[in-house]
Amino acid sequence: MKLQLLSVNVGRPRAIQAGKGEPVSSAIGKTPVRDDKVRVGATNIDGDAQADLRVHGGPDKAVYAYSSDHWPWWEAEHRLACAPATFGENLTLGGAIEPNIAIGDRFRWGDALLEVSQPRAPCYKFAIHTKRADAPQLMTVSARSGWYLRVIEAGDAPIRESRIERVHARGGPSVHDAFVALLHPRASNELQMRVYDAPALAATWREGLARRLAKSRR
Hints:
The chain is of the alpha+beta class and 218 residues long. The protein has helices at residues 71-78, 124-130, 135-142, 175-183, 189-196, 203-217; strands at 2-10, 14-16, 24-26, 31-32, 37-40, 63-67, 91-94, 106-109, 112-119, 147-153, 155-158, 163-168.
């Protein structure tokens, strides 16, 4: 599998505000990188950062990817105009969606080697960024979440006319499976356990599943 790289987007924390509410710091607002290549480090693409490291960033969420294959759905069904970085993603990709990507799949991007670690869980800052109060709910019910990747090998990565190639297919639960297992109310215990047992699953996602499984056993 080779995914088309449409855009690489980075941003640093700044104040964003919803209506008359108190401003909050977020790096969800990103802009495309105009250089020919970029450095991919252990926890960030150069020029990128996170405001709240308790819930964003870190080794398991170093790079966030979102598929442009979802744009027609957002635009036609919900009138959300889409472009690179609309979803706060670092990598705007084409050619695959969540059911096609497994937790633990590895992708080569130039000198960098990336591994899929978990889906993205939408938060209120996504609503502020899109100016749509319903945006997090729409992402949740549709499971059009995108996915995070950890950096297995750091290095320089090309931007222009570039593709990201899957070099190892894990064959386990998909990103879609992982999203549904944790965030959908009617997910089966069997699905939750299957995702929980995925070796490459991010620790925080596994902890969330552990809490949900423990509650179902009470």
